[in-house]
Structures are given as structure tokens and as C-alpha cells.
Amino acid sequence: MDAFTIKDLENLSGIKAHTIRIWEQRYSLIKPQRTETNIRYYNSRELKKILNIALLAKYGYKISHINKMSEEEVRKSIFSLSTAEAQQDRIVNELIQCTVNVDLEKFEDILDSHILSKGIDKTIIQIVFPFLDRIGILWMTNNINPGEEHLITNIIRQKLIVGIESASSPILKNKAVLLFLPEEEHHEIGLLYVAYLLKKNGAKILYMGADVPIRDLKNICKVKKPDFLYAHLTCDFKIEKYFSELRTAIPDSQLIISGKLCQKFKNKAPDFIHVKRSLTEVMEFVSVL
User: Fold this and answer.
1) From CA 206, how far away is CA 153, in angstroms rounded?
2) Residue 184, domain member (yes or no)
3) How many structural domains does the chain have?
4) Which residues fall within 8 angstroms of residue 240, CB to CB, at 6 or more apart?
5) What's the helix, strand, coil split of the chain in %, to 5?
6) Within a domain: 40
7) Binned average pLDDT, 10 residues per bin, the chain of 289 residues
């Protein structure tokens, strides 16, 4: 995890590759190395620099001024950024750097500190979701291997489970929601967060987790008779075929779906499917359940 392309830097920092090249030419802030075939690449130290530069530039610092600053001055300037948005961006950048360096202890400390001061809700929305969006770039460009991804996401998963266990509501609703992910879908973070929201709002949750075959879903539905099934979908699969198989197996089911895959689902959903395309829509469903 120590060879990033200029496109990786663009995706992780939000700074266009063209701008990064201009900065290379005019200033001494970052110095790429080159492969034997003369292709630029950047190490983790350069990634840290560009993340810091991008953060200061976003909040009003001129690049000519940043160029004259020492590393310590850059660090102090970043911590002096006072707006809530700037602080959130700083924390996300720190989590990215911890991931690149596989610094699990620091990663967990950062999360714990934010949960302690802001609570699990704000930590997930303001820090974890933006982090996961950007860390997905590392996954797609092979700059994080599956083992490292599992280590990082498992820390987040553990925090959510603790949040679910401690969540409670003074008003209990007479509704049961069975949460699951279809076969070959393993990304549980979004589903766990929905489970937390549901429990916090008084619903009864039945959590089956990831990679659940329809036959197992059918068996549990026969026994527990949940009011709703809920799936948070991120991986591409044949969604219309899945809907048909689910309807055949559990004809009386009402399925709520959310997640990135919902953004791609443009066709009209069958009557028993309720698509939630944003966090706002998910929270509305939870609140009126």
C-alpha cells in the first residue's frame, strides 16, 4: 500500500489530477517517483501531504502560502480549523492515513474519541460513511487488500454492535423487522446502522446478517412472521431475478431496500418492494414505522 497513481490522489483528496500536476511543477510540496516505464506514482507520505494540502486549500489557505509552511505549521493550521465540517474532514483524512499505514490502534482511538464526544449517530453519518466512500477508492485500485479491509471494517462493525446493544426507546412499537443481506453480499455496515436506528426507535429487530440464502429467510419468516424484511444492498447482482425468487418463496413479505444498488435501480419496483434511495428516506421509514 505504498504506490498511488495521480488518479488515486485525485479521488482521495478531491483535487483534480491537472491541479496536482501544476502544484508539482510550481512548488516543492510533492515529488512523485517514477516506474521503469516513466509512470508517476506516489508513496503514503506523499498521500498524507496531498490530503493535508487539500484540506487547508478547501478552507481558504492559498497554495503559495502552504508551500512556505513547515510540516509542523501545516499540522497546527489543520488543527486550528474551527468549523465542524473542517474537523470532520480532518478526522476522515486521519482515518484514511491510519488505513494506509494499517494503524489499527490509532484508527480505533479516533473512532472512540468521536463516539464519546458526538455519539454513535453523528459518528456514523459524519465520519464513517464519508470514510467508507473514500476508502472504497483504495479497494477498487488495489491499494488495500481484503485482509486489511476486513480489519478496518470489523472495528467499525464492533462499534455499531455496541451501539445496538445499548440502544433503547421509551416507546416500544409493535413492529418486527428482519434484517439480512442476500447471498454473496457481505458489507454489513449499512445494515447494522439501520438495525441501530430501528432499535433506537422502539422496533423489534431480528438480525440475520450477511450472505443469507432465501431458503433460510423463508424458514425464519415462517417462525417469526416479521412485519418487514430489510436489506441494504451494495453489490451488483440480478436484482429483478432476486425479487421474483423472494416473492415466490415468501409471497406475503414486504421488503424494504436501501443502499448504493438502489441508486442504479431505475425500473418501477414490484408492489411488495419499498425502495429507500437516501438516508433521509430510511430515517423517515424508521420514524413512522
Assistant:
1) 22
2) yes
3) 2
4) 267
5) 60, 10, 30
6) no
7) 78 87 82 81 86 91 89 91 91 90 93 93 90 70 68 91 88 89 88 92 93 94 94 80 88 88 72 86 87
